[in-house]
Amino acid sequence: MITAYDDPRIELARQTVGAVTIVPDPTLxxxxxxxxxxxxxxxxxxxxxxxxxxxxxxxxxxxxxHHLGGRAPELVGRQASTRTLLLTAxxxxxxxxxxxxxxxxxxxxxxxxxxxxxxHRATIHRATGAIGVELADRLRHWAAKAEHTAxxxxxxxxxxxxxxxELAGTPMDSAICHLDYQPRNWRVGEGxxxxxxxxxxxxxxxxDFARLEFRRWQAAPRLREMFFTGxxxxxxxxxxxxxxxxxxIEAATALxxxxxxxxxxxxxxxRTVLSRLS
Length: 278
Prior knowledge:
By secondary structure, the protein is α+β, with helices and mostly antiparallel strands. It has helices at about 10-15, 50-65, 105-125, 130-150, 155-170, 210-215, 220-230, 235-245, 245-260, 265-275; strands at about 20, 30-35, 40-45, 75-80, 85-90, 95, 125-130, 170-175, 185-190, 190-195, 200-205. The protein is globular. The termini are far apart.
C-alpha cells in the first residue's frame, strides 16, 4: 500500500477516496497514474504541467462530458494548487494498441463515431462566420512561428496565408469539440470510452475529424467509413473541402510542436500534410 504522499496524484486520491495502490499500466502517459482503492474501485489520477490545461479539462468534465452518453470517466476530485484531477477509471485498453486492420480496430472507429456524434448533436450551433475568423487567426499565428524558425519556405507560408483567408470567409457549424480525437485517447474493450479533455472547447465541428483524417484515415480508408457510419452522416463535398483546409492548421502546429519538442516524427508528419495542401 502506498504510504508516501509526496506525489500530488496519490495525495489527492487519499484525501478523496482513502488509501490506494498503483496499478501498473504501461499504456498510460507518465503524468497519469492508474490507482485502486480498498473497495476495488479504479481511478485515473492526472497532473497537468500547465494550469490552463488543468482548468480547461476540469471544466470540460463538469460542463460537457455528460453529452458523451456515459462514454467518459467521471471527475471525482480536483486540486487547483497542484493542477491534479482524479477520475474514475474506465476499463479496456488504449485504442492505440489495437492491431492495424483488425475487426477490433474497425469497431473502435465505429464506436468513436457514435460517441462524437452524441457530443456534437447536443452542442451544435449552425453556421456563422465567427469560428472561421478565429481559426484563420490561429493559423496565421502558427504559420508565423513556423516561418520564424525556418520550418516553412516563403512560398509555403504564402499558401498557409491563402488558406487562412479562405477560412476567414467561410461560415461553418460549431460544436463542443474534443480536438485531440484519436485512438490514444480512447479506451476500448467491452465498451468504448474517450478521455483527455484538456483541449475540449467550442470549435468548428468538422475540425474534430482532423486528427483522424490526417493521422489515420489516409492510409486506412475503411476506418473512415466505419467512423462515419457510427457518426450517422458523412461530410458533404463542401465539408470535406473544409476538412482538407484544416490540414493547414494540422501541418503548421505539427511543425512547430515537433521543433519545440525535438520530435522528428511529428515534423515529418507536418511536412507530409503541408505537401498535400492543394
